[in-house]
Write a structure and sequence with these properties.
The structure is a single chain. The chain is built from 8 helices and no strands. It has 2 domains: 1-88, RNA polymerase sigma factor, region 2, helix turn helix motif (Rna Polymerase Sigma Factor, Chain: A), CATH 1.10.1740.10; 98-183, Orthogonal Bundle (Arc Repressor Mutant, subunit A). Helices cover 73% and strands 0% of the residues. The chain starts with a helix and ends with a helix. 27% of the residues are buried. It is mainly alpha-helical.
Length: 183
């Protein structure tokens, strides 16, 4: 079923369409939310909240954007709200950034400690980014979305997304340089 057919079936109250929506988009939403929350259970909770919101508000969906763009937008907003409500630190799923190729020689316990420390430092630097920069950065670097798609999700212009990405990189660099100077 195409997304347009899926939306129409959802608007008609089809339970089958709702199950198909979940099957089709649950992984995308969980991965997106995990990128913000760095906690599988929280990401799954956000996914449930997203689907509940979609179920309740599908009648308001005008189709101006793709269904997946609308779902991304809801997932990002729900994830940011969860971060704000629990007033905890923002952590990203960056462990892959520091992984050594599995075909390479085995890592020593020292290497593992160093990699975890690097990830922690980077998580803290990302935590200091403003929400709009975090959103653009996560969607670009961890979701792999094109800048145009990020602009759609964030409801902004392509040039604004490019500026946000540039500022996020500069801010991350600044925070990391400050950290290493202090160390």
């Amino acid at each position: 079923m195409s997304d347009n057919q899926l939306v129409e079936a959802l608007k008609a109250g089809s339970e089958t369409a709702f199950h198909e929506l979940i099957t089709k988009y649950q992984e995308m939403i969980v991965v997106t939310s995990y990128g913000f929350l760095h906690n599988q259970e929280d990401a799954e909770d956000v996914a449930q909240e997203v689907f509940i919101q979609v179920f309740r508000s599908i009648g308001k969906f005008r189709g101006d954007a793709k269904l997946s763009t609308w779902l991304y937008r809801i997932a990002v907003n729900r994830s940011l709200n969860k971060i704000r409500s629990r007033k905890s630190k923002f952590f990203m799923a960056l462990d892959e950034v520091f992984e050594i190729d599995n075909d390479a020689s085995p890592r020593s316990p020292f290497d593992e400690v160093v990699n975890k420390e690097r990830a922690r430092i980077l998580h803290e630097a990302i935590d200091k980014l403003p929400d709009n920069q975090k959103t653009a950065f996560v969607l670009s670097k961890f979701e792999g979305l094109a800048n145009k798609r990020i602009a759609d999700v964030m409801e902004t212009t392509l040039s604004a997304v490019e500026a946000l990405l540039n500022r996020s990189k500069k801010n991350l660099q600044k925070h990391l340089v400050e950290y290493y100077r202090k160390s």
